[in-house]
Amino acid sequence: MEEELHILDKYMAMMKVRFADKVSYSKNIDTNCLNYKAPSLLLQPIVENALKYGYSKDHKTLKILISVQTTNDFLKIVIQNNGKPIEHLDTIFKRGTGLSNSRNRLDHLYGTNYRLHVENIEGSEGVKFNFKLPLEHQLKLNLQS
Prior knowledge:
Layout: H1 2-19, E1 23-29, H2 43-54, E2 62-71, E3 74-81, H3 98-110, E4 115-120, E5 127-134, H4 138-144
Parallel strand pairs: 1-2
Antiparallel strand pairs: 2-3, 3-5, 4-5
């Protein structure tokens, strides 16, 4: 997880140059989670989509929050933004390649033993991606590294 977050930090540093003070990025990471593995480049496409689709003329200040913690036997990752809600949420994985490739990789690695849930934040504007990755698959991910 530490490597994924490091890659994301570098990506967001570039985006901060592009968007200046229009984008903020924060993390709430349980340090016990840093040694867990996550599929490579899992987080970056989600954050990239938040920037691409969440930032708009009506949402000129985008806040992105990444949270990582363990819960029971899962690594729980939440990527949340306050940007434009997703229209036609039911077709989100059919529109482009970034998200569909991410879901296909998760299917390949975990079968049905993971959760990926995307929702518009009710009562406010924004989008939340919730991942639950099984900790029991850590050996498989270590072998692929």
